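The freezer alarm interrupted the setup, so I double-checked each line after restarting. Inputs confirmed:
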Amino acid sequence: MRIKSILLRTLPLYLLCFAAAIHVATGRTPPVPITAGAPYVTQITQEPHLKDPPKPFADDELSRPVNLSAPYFTEITSELQLSDAPDPLPDGTYSLPEIMGGGVSLFDYDNDGDLDLLQIVCPPPGKPDRRAPNRLYRQLPDGTYRNVASAAGLDDPGYGQGAAVGDTDNDGDLDVYVTNFGRDAFYLNNGDGAFVDATAAAGFSGDHWSSSAAFFDYDRDGDLDLYVVRYLLFDSGVTCRSRNDRTVYCGPQSFDGVLDALYRNNGDGTFSDVTAAAGIASPGKGLGVACADLTGDGWIDIYVANDQEANHLWVNNGDGTFTDEAVVRGVAFNAYGEAEASMGVTVGDVNGDGRLDLFMTHLRDETNTLYTATEYGIFVDTSEASGLAAVDRGYTGFGCGFFDYDNDGDLDLALVNGAVRRGSKFPGANVGEFWNVYAEPNLLFQNDGSGVFTHISALAGAFANQVEVSRGLAFGDVDLDGDIDMVVANLNGIRVFRNDALSLDNHWLRVRAVDGNRDAIGAEVTVVTAEAEFVGLILPGYSYLSSSQSRAHFGLGTIEAVESIEIKWPDGGRERFKPPGVDRELTLRRGSGDAL
Amino acid sequence: MKKIFLVILSVCIGIARVDGVVSQSNTSEGIPVPRDLELVSNMRLVGAVDSARTTVAHNPASAAAWGRLGHVYLAHEWRAEAADCYRNAVKIEPGAFRWLYYLGRTLDNDPAKAADVYARALALDEAYAPAHIHYANALRSSGKSKIAGRHFERALELAPRNPFSELRLGQLALSAKRFETARDHLLRALALNPKQSEVHAALAQVYLALGNRDAANRHAQAAQMPTNYNEMPDPLYKEVEKAGVSKFWFTRRGRGYFMAKDFKRAAGELAVAVSEDEKNPLIWYLYGVSLLGIERDNEAVAALERALSASRGNDHQNENDLLKIYNSLAIAHGRAGSPELAGPYLQKALALNPASIRAMNNLAFYYAENDGNLDEALNLARKAAEVGPDEGGHPMSLDTLGWVYFKRGNYSAALKTLTLAAKLLPDSPTVYYHLGMAYFENRDTRNALKAFKIASKLSSNFPEADETKAMIRQIESQ
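Predicted 3D structure, all chains:
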């Protein structure tokens, strides 16, 4: 029986572990320090299309009795006539796609100066193949919303997940890429209130499970390229059980990962898939993405939050290629060296040191993770020292974002939750017997300015009181009153939360950075004052499956005067502007400031 | 009787509110019952819960009975109920370290509370190293890194040469930006266990911070390899694992025994796992190979055929897994007396992945052993042997190449190749048998005898053992 030998020679090979090849890092240039002080020429355009320009608090507002117990966020979904009733919840069939989406996007598609809203919709329960048209809610002059998706041609019927928003043809209006569980879709804005499906014409194809996506100009050629995160190769035949043998939603470990996609904008209305040429070669199980210069070298990098696998930090080499440096820079795993179930991701300078930090949401029993950038080129997991871990371990986070809800000058944090595994029912959960054990309240944290956070959900009002299964989260000034509101996408519909936080005499400034006809996505904006410098980003693509208003919003606290605003444009150019004052939105056009 | 009443009363009180947390569990006769137990269809699990609960009902003053029920609950993710049980065990045996330790293990998602419980446990017995590790983890997760470091160090004193403590101390130092200290701990961890990906990941960051980009990249690459273990052996927690009776636990224990090459135990555990999940190709595969390991060859064939049919229904079956199934089926058929059925599986394996070194090697060897196409055997064996270890090559391919040369009658090339194979695989009796044959055909009976004797000394139970003994007898009788 000669073949017996094969067993002996094969068995050790069975036990071999297979490692994915990774691309090693190359030398990087050191971070560019933030500087200030040189003289400049002022040329500012006041935002022309604000219906009712935000103003500082009126005298009578300040003289009103202060109600310290008033909730910070009030739900105004019905007031805005966004929806009369919640959508039906998914069936609870333990099919993974039904529990993952979808997202929400805030953008001004018709250029009328207010934020419209795109709700990404999943198919109705029990009918995964039925049309599930997305909803485009246009904000009307009275501040209410009306669904115009069909008329606008943005009613993509796919199994919706998320969207990326950006002006891809530099014509001054915002185009939309919709990610689906299935074929994605790309809609070009005609500029007349209607979109045209340009998926095939632009060169997008393929049938994947895409999750988040983001536009950014990685090659500095003046147009927006696109990164599409893909989740996994789903197999509906795979079923999973818990340790106590009850059927559960399968985790990502039950499926194979896939490659994300990087599309280069050819500048002629078409895109080319340059994933392989760019070196994006490691498959993952991605859910969240944020594109920003995380290494400080002036080139925009890509951070991908992967579910129960090492995250990716695709560092832009400046030559059209990328290298994954997540491990060496300390953002692949948590402080224990463990891969976590990363879902949403956000980026911002939480401790005022001028460096961009990262935060991402995770499963219950894991902490969400705050990676704080250091002067050594690496990030350190400060989830515990920041005070976040002590609170958030009991929740499953999805959408998230840094924002200065009270305009006090530092980045606070909001995140929305909803389990993917059965848990204990939270008090107040009322979404049906099946979903009650998945529903979780959302969380709001206040930053003390040093990157240490206090849990203030008790003051957050409806945002944190409503115990639901939440996924998407987008930020923007929906009511144009100078503070940032939030829109949450739950499994059964959207909710809008108006920011009613008491910001006393805090001042603010919002910057729209325009390069040519379009928002300069990826631009880094630094507000310089005598007291401090504030760093912000023109970054709509972050959170989870969502897209937010593409403005850099700065809370200034009691600072009443800004010395200058510096913009680092996505192509590395730098410019300084002299702002006319605070408590307003400014449009800073490239070329109208002083080049640095 | 009064004592029993007090115990039951305390159980009821304890269940209603324990350490300020309202329990999620129901109670029946004062014994916690998971709310969703009625939804569990696995009768083995229901039976295990019933049995453990009955034992408690009959022995409410027995800490061991409460502990056993706690183990059943903890193993099946009913943490709140497990905690209630362990709390009762603590009340009954307040001086026993283990109940507090188990209670701590139920509180992994609440590190502050877990830290309090571990502190109480260690006050009773501070010599159990895993408790220091878990206490330190809980402290660190509660933001008390300094004290955590002391307990990682204490675990190191109690269990010297413990890579887990070194890793954690390194990670703590890294978080504190004490990069040289971090590097020293991590290098010690690496020396104790070179296959810890967490160590490599942390070292990559340390070296980047220290400005050594090359070393950082090297460790980042090494961090992609799976870790071979990352927990300190914990005999107490083994009791919890033993209480697991769901598919998860049979699979996990089976896989553990499989990796330890304890195929008899692996087959026992996996037999239950496959009965619970007949559609899982991986479990059938592990079961089939375990059966091969204990020479239940016909059953192995049946199990591996099930693995194959289960994998056909799986659109995204990993190519690697399928390769393993084909190769194992070939071996199983060969050993079950049907070597003619082995060839087609090896050919399928190669067709699935023409670049697979394993597939090339196995098919070449099959051809050599079964009077197959020796030209193709040589072609495949050469290709497999040319691949270096960095690219997935294996020195066994050299043995195959040497044996193909031998079968083709090219004895000098066979001797040269097999001599090299023996240097690379000095523990393989098969290689020495082949080498002996090559010497023999090169008319060097002295070295042939030497090689055969080495083969016999290495193992008395390898596939060519009988042929080896016969050759020794033949040479010695000359």
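Quick read of the result. The longest strand of chain B covers residues 26-28.
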